[in-house]
Amino acid sequence: MKKLILGCVLAACAVSTGHGQRQQAARVLSPEVLADHRVTFRLQAPQAREVILTGEFFDGRKNLELGADGVWTITVGPIDPETYHYNFTIDGVRTIDPLNPNLKTGSTASTISSVLDVPGDATEFYRGQHVPHGDVRTHWYQSTSLNSLRRVTVYTPPGYDAPGSEARLPVLYLFHGANADESAWIRLGRANLILDNLNAAGKIKPFIVVMPFGYGVDPNGGPQAENTTRFAKDLIEDAIPYIQSRYRASTDRTKRAIVGLSMGGGEALTIGLNHLDLFSHVGGFSAAIGQSAGFPKTFAGLIADPDANKKLRLLWVGCGTEDSLLAPNKGFSEFLTANNVKHTFKQSGGAHTWMVWRRYLNEVSPLLFQ
User: Mean pLDDT lowest for which of 19-33, 97-111, 214-228, 291-305?
Assistant: First the structure.
């Protein structure tokens, strides 16, 4: 009996010791946002030879230092309040922060990053507030035009399902960028929270937001030159009819908007400005719009339409000054001006990031459907 009891005690000690080791490992925190907005990153990898940090909150790369406890550490900043993406590179292999469950993902592996959230007043517009909230729903639909099963995410404003609600609402078709998917504007763009807050503040009229999967071809190797054409076909022939059959979505072109970022910005401008019979509000954020030489052909119908300015209630184009797409976006604005197409062009600080696009959505939404 004594041997049995002793064995149980030793086993318990072993479990306790193992549990203690796991608890100790769990106490390694990364990222840790300090009171002065500096941030400490840590990685427990005693066998690693080199650990490098890259992120949207500084230029270049920084090396972590290995401590006697086997934990690599670096403190950077102070960092302005925002939501950023970052990665570790461990002995030449780019990876996420294994201690951080908050991830950026998309439709291709190259988009996977860890997320750093530095709270502050400047970020409150996209944070959850004590206000009425809308719903986010995901649907699958069969695309006859592409002969495939497709996904779409839909945001409905607060009160959409209230008893007696019968009015048809305006609709914003909102597109993601390359390497992302139909959930990106919710997960990374915080579109639902931005609109909840704007609704609560009385800055916008309630509207539905439809976020389709933005690829018309396989994002991992399809014929990319056909992407916008095939995506447009699905949008017009399948996605819009699907939404109108299941939601109280207005069929009035004056109550329909099309906006996107990067790849989706190019899609929104190309589709919207070539289908003014369907859309009256058009916007591109850091749009992948192509080169100026192609504009006369791509937008031939727009510049030939004598009533284009009457049909367009809003044409808004914006791009960050540190974005590699600034030149083509400026060129597109100049093309519109040369052809007397009324529009708004905004240059703002920032690169090709969600930090810019969240603010653009917050700025443009109050201009819709007024």
Answer: 19-33
